[in-house]
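Here is the promised in-class demo. Please do not try to memorize the tokens; focus on the logic of going from shape to residues.
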């Protein structure tokens, strides 16, 4: 496999016209093939003089071998022996033997195989490149009372753009006016349009379907979700899986061994067995072609490229070959509860005031503290407070107590808002006290509680509920059908709520009331006990656990910056149902990699035996060698059409 250059122009001379540089690979293959045909058939059937035929063979050599030599010779001077060098050596050997036609045929097929290989690999690399074409180049932005059409690169953060029905959203932003259905399939892989209203986020490249929207830009064009996804996919395709690294090391050591073996064959056969030098040289050239590991070198990276591309097209961002490979080896999956197994959209179900404190006062103080928190419980409390038209002050001296709650000052008084464990040591929160009894009853009913203490006195409790995501039970069943033995919930929520959710959706284990550090410890313990595990979370609160797991999987929220940067795999549409798809795709990739290894090594073994006994000519060895390379690439490209069948492993 040619390592340089990485584009379709090959080593086109810079002085050529642009149109020739763009088509250099096609032109060299066409010239090599045409010259070979004219020379061979002209000499055999049309009495073409041998000297003229030789001229055509030389032309075929130059055209077919130009790019190969430009890659092989500089590498040789750097002490690197690669497959291109084997082909150059074999073609040169054929010429020394006077077998110009076979040498030209070898270089023609090798250059043709390279052209096809580059086309196929580019197809895998560019499978998500079409997303770039979805990006609008201009946007209509509000400038005073006028709408101006400007290039998206000139827009600044916080500018408002207008998106008409049927148009693609030109920027990442938040809707400020209008309601509509938006087709987000380009980003999330979701086939069904989603309803969007003021306050909701939309992404560049998605399609506004129904009504006009005003969108306030939140990211520059170069930083939007679509651009970041394409960049991360490109980086992921360059990362190598363990199998790929193994085949590269094998090929790097195998090529010098082939060259040494060929030299020994050429020298020893005449000296030991009395062969003629020409016969031994020809046998050496046969072995040189037979042992060239082209298919072995290309089979694995082609499958990795195609697998990552297919995942990205279906809304799953896999950040490298090693993670693609590890997904298929999973036997244990740990999952965060809030926002992963459940919707994360809590609703306030009950407000209880203590010692005559009105419900509105409890909400007012709680909302003042929670307003600046991003936690789903905080968002639900603030939302309910505003829906009741309760005005609340701003808190000061805010301090986040990890895994417990938030402490702040409101109207001069110290306020602590949090879970029961935040109040350990307070006698009023001890077992048997009214507060503890109230919490026990609410949590026994499967509700999550938030306690509010002001100036050392408990003023109330807010109860909230969160429901499992739609279809999450079916997703867990699909994971079990794929051989995932343990499905473990890791949550900071109270045990009764966690067990209620786990029973509803079919988990095997529950670890509740955990601090972020406890999640990290449990992930380490699971990894030591079970080997290869995945941690599924929101990419923010679960960042340490995601980083520690064999495979960290983030619920992408449409591609938030933290989710994209933290995890090894991102489910772009916040769709947990994509996890069984990703695992199935990983296993399909592993099967194809194994098939390619068998094909490559099998053909090498077959050709070595056949060449060793001299039962095939050089031309047939070349056809089988190049044919195996094309077969493994086409086999890898099958991943671009892979679909999950429910129940498959």
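The designed amino acids, position by position:
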């Amino acid at each position: 496999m040619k390592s340089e250059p990485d584009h379709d122009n090959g080593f086109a001379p810079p002085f050529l016209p642009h149109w020739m540089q763009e088509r250099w690979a096609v032109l060299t293959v066409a010239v090599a093939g045409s010259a070979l045909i004219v020379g061979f058939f002209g000499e055999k059937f049309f009495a073409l003089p041998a000297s003229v035929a030789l001229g055509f063979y030389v032309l075929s050599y130059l055209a077919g071998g130009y790019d190969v030599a430009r890659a092989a010779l500089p590498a040789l001077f750097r002490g690197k022996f690669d497959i291109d060098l084997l082909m150059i050596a074999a073609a040169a050997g054929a010429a020394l033997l006077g077998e110009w036609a076979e040498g030209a045929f070898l270089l023609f097929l090798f250059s043709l195989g390279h052209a096809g290989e580059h086309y196929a690999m580019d197809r895998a690399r560019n499978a998500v490149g079409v997303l770039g074409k979805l990006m609008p180049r201009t946007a209509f932005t509000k400038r005073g009372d006028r709408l101006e059409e400007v290039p998206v690169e000139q827009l600044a953060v916080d500018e408002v753009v207008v998106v008409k029905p049927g148009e693609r959203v030109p920027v990442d932003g938040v809707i400020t006016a209008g309601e509509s259905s938006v087709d987000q399939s380009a980003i999330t892989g979701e086939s069904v349009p989603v309803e969007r209203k003021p306050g909701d986020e939309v992404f560049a490249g998605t399609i506004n379907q129904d009504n006009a929207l005003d969108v306030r830009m939140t990211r520059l064009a170069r930083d939007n979700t679509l651009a970041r996804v394409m960049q991360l996919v490109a980086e992921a395709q360059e990362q190598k899986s363990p199998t790929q690294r193994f085949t590269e090391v094998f090929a790097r050591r195998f090529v010098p061994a082939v060259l040494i073996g060929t030299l020994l064959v050429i020298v020893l056969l005449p000296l030991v067995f009395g062969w003629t030098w020409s016969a031994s040289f020809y046998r050496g050239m046969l072995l040189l072609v037979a042992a060239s590991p082209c298919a072995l070198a290309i089979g694995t990276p082609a499958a990795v490229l195609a697998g990552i591309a297919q995942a990205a097209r279906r809304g799953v961002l896999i950040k490298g070959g090693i993670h693609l490979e590890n997904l298929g080896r999973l036997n244990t999956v740990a999952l965060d509860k809030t926002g992963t197994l459940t919707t994360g959209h809590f609703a306030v179900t009950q407000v209880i005031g203590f010692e005559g404190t009105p419900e509105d006062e409890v909400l007012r103080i709680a909302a003042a503290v929670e307003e600046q928190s991003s936690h789903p419980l905080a968002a639900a409390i603030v939302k309910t407070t505003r829906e009741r038209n309760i005005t609340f002050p701003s808190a000061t001296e805010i301090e986040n107590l990890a895994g417990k709650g938030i402490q702040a000052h409101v109207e001069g008084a110290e306020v602590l808002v949090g879970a029961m464990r935040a109040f350990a040591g307070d006698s009023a929160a001890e077992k048997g006290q009214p507060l503890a009894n109230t919490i026990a009853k609410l949590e026994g009913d499967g509700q999550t509680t938030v306690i509010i203490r002001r100036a050392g006195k408990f003023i109330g409790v807010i109860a909230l509920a969160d429901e499992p995501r739609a279809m999450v039970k079916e997703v867990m069943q699909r994971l079990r059908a794929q051989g995932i033995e343990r499905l473990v919930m890791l949550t900071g929520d109270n045990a009764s709520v966690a067990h209620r959710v786990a029973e509803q959706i079919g988990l095997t284990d529950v670890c509740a009331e955990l601090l972020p550090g406890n999640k990290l410890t449990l992930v380490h313990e699971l990894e030591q006990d079970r080997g290869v595990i995945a941690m599924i979370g929101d990419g923010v609160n679960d960042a340490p656990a995601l980083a520690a797991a064999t495979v960290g999987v983030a619920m992408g929220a449409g591609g938030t910056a933290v989710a994209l940067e933290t995890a090894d795999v991102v489910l772009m549409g916040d769709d947990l149902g994509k996890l069984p798809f990703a695992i199935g795709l990983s296993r399909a990739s592993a099967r194809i990699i194994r098939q390619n290894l068998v094909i490559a090594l099998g053909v090498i073994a077959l050709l070595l035996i056949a060449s060793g006994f001299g039962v095939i000519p050089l031309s047939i060895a070349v056809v089988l060698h190049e044919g195996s390379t094309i077969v493994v690439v086409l086999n890898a490209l099958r991943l671009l059409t892979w679909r999950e069948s429910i129940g498959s492993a």
